[in-house]
Amino acid sequence: MAVRSEIRIPKKHASEEPADEPKGQGKPVEKGPFRLQVDRQTKDSYATYEEAEAVGLALKKRFPIVQVTIYDTVKGERKIIELAK
Q: pTM score, two decimals?
């Protein structure tokens, strides 16, 4: 029986290719202390309460079933956005 020669696979050296940054979701950029949350999931942050409220109200008008809240990270308070009846 013939002896099979060893198979060699060339290895890549670490110095040949630059290291890529890890893939996945990065940390979102914080714009301010007021966070807009939809169904308890943070979607964006805003510098002023008025900005967050305007966007939250527009979302609530478009999707009245979802719960839209604004969370103030400084005071630790959460306000639910509701449509006027």
A: 0.65
Contact 70, 85 (CB under 8 A): no
> What is the C-alpha separation between 80 and 82, in angstroms, rounded?
6
Q: What angle do CA 42, 76, 68 make, to 5 degrees?
A: 35
C-alpha 15, offset from chain centre: 33
Integer angstrom CA distances of residue 67 from 19, 36, 51, 58, 80: 42, 11, 18, 12, 7
Residue pair 57/44 in contact by the 8 Å Cβ criterion: no
Tell me, what's the pLDDT at 2? 72
**What does the pLDDT look like over 19-58, one tens digit per residue?**
666 666 777 667 889 999 999 999 999 999 999 999 999 9
